Amino acid sequence: MEALLDYDPTQIIAGVDEAGRGPLAGPVVAAAVILNPAQPISGLADSKKLSEAKRDALSPLIKQYALSWCIASASVEEIDTLNILQATLLAMQRAVNGLSSTPELVLVDGNRLPNLTIPALAIVKGDSKVAAISAASILAKVERDRLMVDYHHQYPDFAFHIHKGYGTRQHLQEIHQIGILPIHRQTFNPVKQLLASQLKS
User: What's phi and psi for 74, nearest 5 deg?
Assistant: First the structure.
């Protein structure tokens, strides 16, 4: 999985990924994971390519066998204040800083790096190339989905447990029929457009 990348695999490596950049509601969640070479976890892959059941099965194994892991987030308020890219990088920074062990190298999914004091590499499609990034993508996705289920219980008129806050037809209908919630990202269209139309009326 990692043979094509230009780094020393004997280093203590933390993989970092996020979940929730695209939705209209809720925080963006990031995770950092340092895997234990002596405790390999089979089945790691990009979380988007795994079923929900598979992610849910792998998440506790990652937490059990990893040398260190941390899940962090950036709030809706931070997303609206900073923009989604900067909020994502902030969540990633918090996840790395929250690790109980300090890695020698941080590998981040994507093409942008958070502000870190540790050497880091950005790897496009890293969640399908690096096991530690795959593990981070799974933890971030499972945690964010859990938050969405909690939001459904808090706001039962919204099917957050189904659409996970993404701009699906169902979610857009809910917004127009029920209104905008405190957990909606006000700088994201169509939430932004609806707010603007309310101000005009």
Answer: -125, 135
Q: Is the peptide bond before 190 cis (omega within 30 degrees of 0)?
A: yes
CATH ID of 13-200, from 1.20.120.340, 3.30.70.3270, 3.30.420.10, 3.40.50.1820: 3.30.420.10
Q: DSSP alpha helices (H): ranges in the chain?
A: 52-65, 76-82, 84-97, 131-154, 160-163, 169-178, 191-200
Backbone angles phi, psi at 75, to 5 degrees: -75, 170
On whether the CB atoms of residues 131 and 2 are closer than 8 A, the answer is yes
Of 129, 98, 140, nearest to 5 (Cα)? 129
Q: Are 124 and 110 in contact (CB under 8 A)?
A: yes
Query: Residue for token digits 């590499």?
Result: 121
The tens digit of pLDDT for each residue in 42-77 reads 999 989 999 999 999 999 999 999 999 999 999 999
The whole-number pLDDT of residue 157 equals: 97
Amino acid identity of 199?
L
Whole-prediction pTM: 0.94
Q: Which residue has the tokens 């219980």?
A: 153
Question: Across the chain, which distance is largest between two alpha carbons, in Å?
Answer: 63
pLDDT of residue 1: 44
103, 107, 129, 99: which is closest to 12 by C-alpha? 103
Q: What phi and psi values does residue 145 have, to the nearest 5 degrees?
A: -60, -35
What DSSP element (H or E) covers 17?
strand 13-19
